[in-house]
Amino acid sequence: MLLACIAALGMSMAGPARAMTPEQEKAVATGLDALYRCDYEGAEGLFARGISEHPGDPVYSLGYAAALWWRMENDLAGPDSPQEHAFYKAVGLAIDDAKRERRSGRKAEGYLYLGAARGLKARREASQHRWVAAYVDGRRSYRDERKAIELDPGLYDAYLGLGAYDYYVATLSRLVRVLTFTSGGNKAKGLSELRLAAEHGQYSRTAAKLLLVGIYWTLEKNPREAWNILQELRGGLPESPLIDSMRLIGLYHLHDAAGLKIEAAAMLAKAESGKPFYRRIDRAGALYFLGLAEQLSGGYTRALEHYEAALRDIPEGHPLRGLVELFVGESLDLLGRRDDAVAAYRRALKEPPLWGVPRYARHLISHPYAKSLDPLPPRSVDLGGTSSLEASGSL
C-alpha cells in the first residue's frame, strides 16, 4: 500500500480522445478507474478481452501490461515471481504493438504508446535495483515521449513520463549519475510537466496527481500540498483502498494522530464489512495505521495490540511484515522493554527487505528508539555505517 506514492509512474497509457475510437476510449477510462479502485481482476479482464478481440492494438496490450504492473507493484511481488514473468511478457507485446503503430503512420500515438510501455518496464527495473537497465529503458521512454510531443503538442498525456524523468533524474546522487552515465534532469521543469499532465491530460490526470503526492511528501517536504491533492482525488474515488491508504500516509506526514485514528478506523470498517476490493491486506494496513496513531499519541500498549493484529493478517514472507515488526520494536522500546524490542528488530531483519527498514532496524538494535525520533526516517538520514548510495537516498 505504501508503494502507492510511486505506483503512478509509467501510467501515461493512451493518447487524446481524437486519436481513439469510442470503444477504445471507454475501455481505457473503465480500465483505469478499475485500477484506481483496486479492481485488479476487472481491469486485467477488460484489457485481455481487448487483446483477444483486437490483436495488435497497442491500446489494449499496453492497458493489460499496465494492469499487471499495477497489481505487481502494489502487491510487492518479488523478483523472478510469476507476476513479474507475466508482466515482462505483456510489456514485450505492448512494445511490439506500439512499434507497429508507429510504422503504420500514426507516429505520434505510436511514440506515446512506446514511451509508456518502456516507462513501465523501467519502473519495474528501478524497483528491483536493476539500475543500468532502468536507466536505458527510462531514457528511451523519455525520448519516445518527447518525440510524441514534437509531432503532436496536444498529447498532454506524454508529460507524465517526461515530468517523472526530468524530476527524478535531477534528484540522483553524483555517484549514481556516474555509474549509470546519466545526465540532465531539472526538478522545476519536471514539476511543471507533471502539473500539465495533471491539469490537461486525457488519461494521465489521476496518475500525475498520485505521483505529485509522493514527490511533495518525500522530496519537496510539502505534506500540506500533497494533502490538498488527496482531497481532490477522494472526490472521484470515494471507495478506493488505494486512496484510503494514501490519505493515511498523508495524515502521518501531517503529524495528525487524531485524524489518522479516525480515518484508519473508517478503513478498517470498510475492510471488515466486505466492501468490494478491500482485501485482507487492506485490513492489515488499517490496523497498522491505527497502531501508528496510538504510538504517536503515547498509547504504546494499545499500539502493540493493533500491530500484532495486523501481523496476523499479513502472509508469511510478505515484505510488509518487516515494517510492522519495526514499529512493534519501537513501541516496546518506548515501554522500556528493551530486550523484547531488540528481538522485534531482529525479526524485521529476517523478513524480505522493504525500503529503509533493514538499515533502520540494524540501527535500532544498538540505539534504542526514543519518542523524539521519526518512526520511519527518510532514507537520506545518515544513521551511520550506511553506503553512499543509501545515504544519498538513491536506494
CATH class of the largest domain: Mainly Alpha
Estimated structural class: mainly alpha
Largest sheet: none
Spatial extent as radius of gyration: 21 Å
What percent of residues are in strands? under 5%
Shape: globular
Low-confidence stretches are: 1-18, 385-395
Q: Provide the CATH topology of the largest domain.
A: Serine Threonine Protein Phosphatase 5, Tetratricopeptide repeat
Separation of the first and last Cα atoms: 19 Å
Q: Please give the number of β-strands.
A: 0
- Please work out how many helical segments DSSP would assign: 19
Q: How helical, in percent, are the residues?
A: over 70%
CATH architecture classification name of the largest domain = Alpha Horseshoe
CATH-assigned homologous superfamily of the largest domain: Tetratricopeptide repeat domain
Supply the number of structural domains.
Answer: 2
Mean pLDDT: 88
Order of helices and strands: HHHHHHHHHHHHHHHHHHH
Structure description:
The N terminus and C terminus are likely disordered. The protein has 19 helices and no strands. It folds into 2 domains: 219 residues, Tetratricopeptide repeat domain (Serine Threonine Protein Phosphatase 5, Tetratricopeptide repeat), CATH 1.25.40.10; 136 residues, Serine Threonine Protein Phosphatase 5, Tetratricopeptide repeat (Alpha Horseshoe), CATH 1.25.40. The chain is an all-alpha fold.
